[in-house]
Amino acid sequence: MVNSGGVRTEDGEDLLAGYVSGPAAATEATAVALARAGGARAVILVEGVSDQIAVETLAGRRGRDLAAEGVVVLPAGGAHGIGRYLRRFGPAGAGVRLAGLCDAGEAQVVRRALAGLCLERLGFFSCVEDLEDELIRAAGTALVAEVFGAHGDLSAFRTIQRQPAWRGKAEAAQMRRFLGAGSQRKLRYARLLTEAIPLDQIPRPLTAVLNAVDEPGAQVSGAVPGGGGR
User: What is the mean pLDDT of each run of 10 residues along the chain (230 residues)?
Assistant: First the structure.
């Protein structure tokens, strides 16, 4: 991994090492994170495993060791799960520091769980559409295509582009459809695109949610004042 951004050119066995994938990924990933959350200083609530991978990948690029800081990224299995774990870890529960990331379509669910309070004031940030949309817009379609090519997926992507339902659509929308076509692909590219995007162009919600759980007085390598480039 190159901290200044760059295209990884191999899919080593370690690409998704430590992450849960497969049919039961959502529930298993939540269970694994919950086991680590006891005694945590802070918990970042996210909807799914791809969000967890992107947050933890960015933390590594910024020189942060979340485990050493006592920060756990908890994939909640959707926005309704975020509400459940807000109650478990918030002021009425464990009382740990909380932050979170959600899709735009689910922001109202999270807002209701926060009793209608401002999401960002409480450390919760919404993607414009979803994580994949944020990463594609931040990277630009040329870089995304380069990453696809480096991992042997460009031909499969071109096939989707030729399908009648997607022919003539905006390339960014085609890319988002391609990433969502398989859970493993979604997980892989959450990491690969987060690695490839220059730090000053990382989507604002990703940067901001990490900033929300900074240790007091910490100087974080690669942090972008104001929270990211998009």
Answer: 56 70 81 92 94 97 96 92 88 88 87 74 89 97 97 95 93 96 88 97 97 70 40
Give the domain range for residue 89. 25-211
Residue 97 DSSP SS3: strand
In a domain, 159, yes or no: yes
CA–CA distance, 117 with 3 (Å, rounded to integer): 36
Rounded to two decimals, what is the model's pTM? Answer: 0.86
- The answer to whether the beta carbons of residues 209 and 44 sit under 8 Å apart is yes
Q: Token pair of 104, please? A: 């735009």
How far is residue 136's CA from residue 211's CA, in Å, rounded to a whole number?
A: 22
Give 215's DSSP letter.
Answer: P
Domains in the chain, number: 1
Q: Looking up tokens 């949309």, which residue turns up?
A: 133
